Structure formats: structure tokens, C-alpha cells
Amino acid sequence: MPEIISKFKNEVGCNEAATIAQIKLCNLKLKQAGFPELPDEYAELLMQANGFSNEGVEVFGAEVKDNNWFKDIAAYNLRYFKSHASPWVLLGKDEYFYFIYEKQQNKYAIVEQDSVALEFISDNLQEVLSKFLRIED
């Protein structure tokens, strides 16, 4: 996890670290609404930087007060899905794509917003985030 943090912190805008209480409250809200809880590795990432932003790409944080740079995971999912739960949780977005976590397969994915067509999928968080945040290796 440390290499992913140093890589992202050097190349993208990062929010301050999330607290354990913020992660727990976010997971409670997600669970109560029928969404998957955040995977442990994503929660660890948020405890280093509670959201990312790069060239119009947003990666959401836990219990963030929505602003122009960072969005809150639970609040965004509850607004987006309104009254129905989902087998996946939205973790980020840009103009055309969503960054999601799919619990059944335990994978992260990038999907088109309109069609939900799969663009990229992996169980490797760093791989998907690098692609989504447009960070070159």
C-alpha cells in the first residue's frame, strides 16, 4: 500500500487522511442502505488520503463534506441509486466512466456511465486506480 500512496500523492490532488471513525461511519451508512462495505485495502488507502482528484477524475472519500474536489462515497451512492441497493459501490467518476468495487467478484472496475459497459476490471486496486486517474507507470 505505501507505494500506491506515494505514487498518487506525487501526481494527483489528495485530500487529508480519513480517520477510522470516518471509515466506520461510511461503512455503516453503506451497509444500512444495502451496499457492500468498503474493501479493507480501499479503507487503508483512504486513511492515507481521503479522496483523489486529477484532471477531472474524482475518487471519493469517506465522510467527506462534498466540495468541488472531493465527494463522499456513501452520500454519492445514496443519491445515485436513490431507493435501491446495488451489488457494487461507486468509488469515483469522471465525465464518461465510473470507478466501482464489485463485492461478489472482489474486483475493482471502470465502467461506462451510460451503458455500464465494462472498460477495465482487476482485483489489483493500484492497477485500476492508476488507469482511472490517468497516471502513467
Walkthrough of the structure:
By secondary structure, this protein is an alpha+beta fold. The protein has five helices and seven strands. A hairpin with a 5-residue loop joins strand 6 and strand 7. The longest helix is centred in the first third of the chain and has 13 residues. The two termini are 16 Å apart. Helix 2 packs parallel to helix 4.
Keywords:
137 residues, alpha+beta, seven-stranded antiparallel sheet, 34% helix
Task: Characterize the overall form.
Answer: globular
Strand content: 15-25%
Termini distance? 16 Å
- What is the makeup of the main sheet? 7 strands, antiparallel
Q: How many strand segments?
A: 7
Strand order of the largest sheet: 1-2-3-4-5-6-7
Class based on secondary structure composition and strand pairing: alpha+beta
Elements, N to C (H/E): HEHHEEHEEEEH
The helical percent reads 25-40%
Radius of gyration: 13 Å
